[in-house]
């Protein structure tokens, strides 16, 4: 690697490569509706989800991250010695002290590289974005030694039996970050909103399951989106000398996706914010009856929500639809969800079409923390798309019955935090090249193998 010039920013810092890991097994959401005895469409239309990935006791956060990093390195022929920073964003905690990143270091030490900065970052689903920011900031700082960074965002999204369980899922996205990237972070276009809220949290160390106030969490998500969007647009107005910037200045939108319908609603809210800045614009005529509505009421009003959803239906299909594909097929992935959306966008839209397009990305983590940035596509994304091979890999998964999903969840419940333990999940459910938990000894030390 070349020695960096500290007198100038490295040019075109962003995403050079992406890899995504998701479990071999999934369950079809329409079958889950029947199994759970709920009305048809509750999960598929109400949540907007198609399928849901799941794992048993053979995989954990460290094994799935090992798989994602190893595959990233192999598929893109990256040398371990060329990595100077490794950042992990996750909220799936299996140890209160030892970082997931330290386990991933086994891959690097085997290749003789122990000089790798970075640790884990945790704040619900926001940790992956924070890890990404840390990596970008490192490359643009005097700390940078000229090497690449890797960002790993991944989680097991697990819920107790009940209303939230259909929003489960599992997945990891690993990204190579550096200069001269095809997917470039736009400088000066960044906004953040943070506050204290008990919308989703994990206070019980004896359980993998969170405490969730679903309705409140949705409101927090939308409110944080509004705040980030308004601040982002104010900066866009200043940067590009625009009088009334709007969603018309954005080509594609990637949002954190707990479930697809919430992304749909947040995209619709962008038009409400645009309307408030341009109330006399004829294209917002359908929103005129809501001009005097208070902001607090706007968050709850179903008539406004329906008007916004109708107004933005075509825009959603064009600007959000490509990024929604993979999350709808996998389910929630917590920190990985928003980056799975970016991977999906790159996979669903060809490189030529993406050139010079602006991609807005919104990350939300309960508790709460949210940020919005944008990317410009400045180079070919064809290789990323080809090596992700998302559609083919998603279609190749095993479609399991809801009973198998329930059994896997029960297996995890019964063995949570176990030691001196050998997992009983079948290795038939582990794909070739995937790391799995071989055993946990009497000191809670975990040992992994890669399936040949």
TrEMBL record:
GO terms for biological process: acetyl-CoA metabolic process; ergosterol biosynthetic process; farnesyl diphosphate biosynthetic process, mevalonate pathway. It catalyses: acetoacetyl-CoA + acetyl-CoA + H2O = (3S)-3-hydroxy-3-methylglutaryl-CoA + CoA + H(+). GO terms for molecular function: hydroxymethylglutaryl-CoA synthase activity. Belongs to the thiolase-like superfamily. HMG-CoA synthase family. Transmembrane segments: none annotated. Catalyzes the condensation of acetyl-CoA with acetoacetyl-CoA to form HMG-CoA. InterPro entries: HMG_CoA_synt_C_dom, HMG_CoA_synth_N, HMG_CoA_synthase_euk, Thiolase-like. This is Hydroxymethylglutaryl-CoA synthase.
